[in-house]
Every structure is written in C-alpha cells, then in structure tokens.
UniProtKB/TrEMBL annotation:
Name of this chain's protein: Adenosine deaminase
Highest taxon above the source species: Bacteria
Domain named Adenosine deaminase: residues: 46-367
Organism: Jatrophihabitans telluris
Family per similarity comment: Belongs to the metallo-dependent hydrolases superfamily. Adenosine and AMP deaminases family.
Keywords: Hydrolase, Metal-binding, Zinc
PROSITE patterns tied to this protein: A_DEAMINASE (PS00485)
Length: 374
C-alpha cells in the first residue's frame, strides 16, 4: 500500500471542502437513511469523533488494495463488491467480517499507511479531533512487533497533526473475544510501550459470553497508569453490562450503551454522574443491534439528560461517515443548525483532548455557527 501525497488536502483546503464525502463510496453512503437537509452545514462544521475503529475506518479502496495482495482472503478485491460483503446478518457476523479485514494488515508499513489515510479521510470531513480505537493485540499476534506498531501509528498521528489540521489520540481496546491473553498484551502495549497519543483504555468485540468483570485488574492497572476508561457496553447485551462497565471497570464514557434505555435507574445514574454515551446510530442498524432507526433510543437519552456524542464507529463498513451520522442525529432529535453545533460542542467537551485543543475547536464551532447558521 502506498500513500499518494498529491491527494493530501492542505489544512486550508479542509475548511473549504464541505461537499467531500470521501470516507466511503458516495453511492453507498446513507444506505440506511436519507441525506440530511443540513448536509452542507454539517460538512463544514468542525467536529470531534470519539468512537471510531482503526481498521473499521479503512476506505473501500484500501481494503480492496490490501485484499488483492492476498488472493486466498475472503475479502473482495473489487471495491464495488464490498457493500455486499459488508452486509451483516447479525453482530457476530459483523465481527467475523471485521476480523477478516484485520487479517489483511500484515506489517508496520500497512499500519502507518492505513492510519494516515484514515486521518486524511477524517480531515476531509472537517473532523478536527478524533480518538481512534486501536487494537494492538490484533496486529501483535499477527506478527507485527509492538514497538514497530507504536512507531507506525505515532508517525501517522504526528504527520496528521502537521499536514491535516487533525489532532489524533488513541484508545487501546481489548478485543473481548480473545479473552485474558489479549487483555494482557493490550495492557502491556498501553503501559510499557505507552505511545504519546494514548489517552484511554477500552474493551470491544462481542459482549455475549464476554463478561466485563473479568477485565477488572486490567482496567485498574490502566487507570493507575493515568488512562481514561472507555469500554464498549450495552451494544449487544442488556443494561447490566453497562452497570458492570461503570461499577467494575470505572467507565468514564460508554461505547454505545444502547440498551441503557431499558433501565430508568441506569439512565438517571448516567445523567446524574454525567457519563457520556458514544452513540453510533447507523452502526446499530447495520449490525442489527437495533431493528430500525425510528426505534433508536438516542432521543430517550437526550430526554433523560444523559450526555451523548455522535459517532460513526466503522464508517465504510456501515456505508456512513461522521457527517452522515450528524444528519441522522438531526433527524432523530429534530435539530437545526444551532442544535447541530451543540452536538459538535458536546463531542469536543466529552473528549479526552487537552484543554487548549478543546477550547480552540469549540471557538471554531462558535465562529462557524455565527457565519453559516441561519
Ligand atoms: O461496533 C463495534 N463493537 C465492538 N467491537 C468493534 C466494533 N467495531 C469494531 N470493533 C472491533 O472488533 C474487534 C474484535 O473484537 C476489536 O478490535 C474492536 O475494536
């Protein structure tokens, strides 16, 4: 895989390129919902993304390019066949497909290129800050040395900040299905290899058959090392998983948290303690965690006073991108431009970004609303 520097937008080009939906194939974008009437406003709005997976952000072009190097792989080499490959019968099927793409990343150069290209797609959407969920275990167990992996992602992070006006940070997550050995490797990567951009410790993958409490010692150690706790919970199992994440893993933010809506006491707790949920509406439909967008509990969260941010999760795999998700949120919550700007400010405020980065981006949002709001 090679980077074509001539495709890299300059920082000033980002501001003026609101129509670019480069993170996914535009024909497929919005397979699960209509384009928003606010699409133009959203495209130029400076935003933060707090829940987005590293490999799950690989564009169809990168995925098919990688697949063509490994003819035996199940992943299609033709980008136009990817939409069908990325149609999931259920969450378990989604994870199986996700791991087949992870399998195509074989060396540190792949990691560096992938990370930089993901950053470039984000910058074209006017994302100014992103916490990318990275699973070092998946690469280390496929033979990429941990030190090389860290060097690759850090190199991409520093280049993105220099070239793309995008501040990147990492959440290292345990792929839950791989159990304690994966947790050990992830904790070692987070605490011994400790790259400068790392801000949080997470837990992803399936929830069924993967109880959160088994990872208590790993989260305790990560938190003692100064990392924030941001596990997935309540995406595919009920509210008890969210309680476990809060009470056992010390969660400061919850990935998805969708089924919290089933438990009024949990909603009150989240509101009282101002624990944000990282909501990814289209993802929940694509993995069939929620049956229909109309059934999505986003508006119930907001009504209960639970803080939320809007995120894209694995955008090309779900035929979406962050701008499209903001349009979906506007529809679900009945927002206008000023409400969309509030949503963008929430994304920044709930992030683990340095304070100066937060105030800079919030000021950019304020000024964008002043000049582009109705
Ligand atoms: O929506 C999601 N929920 C949970 N895990 C996910 C999701 N998207 C990507 N991953 C990724 O699945 C891998 C296998 O556990 C992990 O690397 C996790 O980051």
């Amino acid at each position: 895989m090679t980077v074509d520097p001539s495709n890299a937008p300059s920082a000033s080009a980002n501001v003026a390129a609101p129509q670019a939906y480069v993170a996914t194939s535009s024909a497929e974008l919005g397979r699960f919902s209509r384009p928003s009437k606010y699409a133009g406003f959203i495209a130029g709005l400076p935003k933060a993304e707090l829940h987005v997976h590293h490999v799950g952000s690989a564009s169809p072009r990168i995925v098919s390019e990688l697949a063509s190097r490994y003819p035996g792989a199940p992943v299609p080499t033709d980008p136009s066949k990817l939409a069908e490959y990325f149609t999931f019968s259920d969450f378990a099927h989604f994870i199986e497909v996700y791991l087949s793409v992870v399998d195509l990343i074989r060396d540190a150069e792949d990691v560096r290129t992938l990370t930089y290209e993901v950053a470039r797609d984000m910058a074209a959407l006017n994302i100014r800050y992103a916490e990318l969920t990275v699973s070092p275990y998946s690469s280390i167990r496929r033979g990429i040395p941990g030190e090389q992996f860290m060097e690759a992602i850090e190199d991409a992070r520093v280049s993105a900040e220099r070239d793309l006006d995008l501040v990147l940070r990492w959440c290292f997550d345990i792929p839950g299905e791989a159990g304690i050995p994966a947790a050990d490797v992830t904790l070692d990567a987070a605490t011994r290899l400790a790259p400068a951009g790392l801000v949080s410790f997470g837990l992803g993958g399936p929830e069924i058959g993967v109880p959160r409490p088994q990872f208590k010692a790993h989260f305790d150690a990560a938190r003692a090392a100064g990392l924030h706790s941001a596990p997935h919970a309540g995406e595919t199992t009920g509210p008890q998983t969210v309680w476990d994440a809060l009470q056992v893993l010390g969660a400061e933010r919850i990935g998805h948290g969708t089924t919290s809506a089933q438990d009024p006491a949990l909603l009150s707790y989240l509101a009282e303690h101002q624990i944000p949920l990282e909501v990814c509406p289209t993802s929940n439909i694509a993995t069939r965690a929620v049956a229909r967008l109309e059934d999505h509990p986003l508006s119930a969260f907001v009504a209960a006073g639970v803080p939320v941010s809007i995120n894209s999760d694995d955008p090309p795999m779900f035929s979406t991108d962050l701008n499209h998700e903001y349009g979906v949120a506007a529809e679900l919550l009945g927002l206008d431009e000023s409400g969309l700007a509030d949503l963008a400010r929430n994304g920044v405020r709930h992030s683990f970004a340095p304070d100066d980065v937060k105030s800079r981006i919030v000021a950019e949002i304020d000024s964008y609303l002043n000049t582009h709001g109705r």
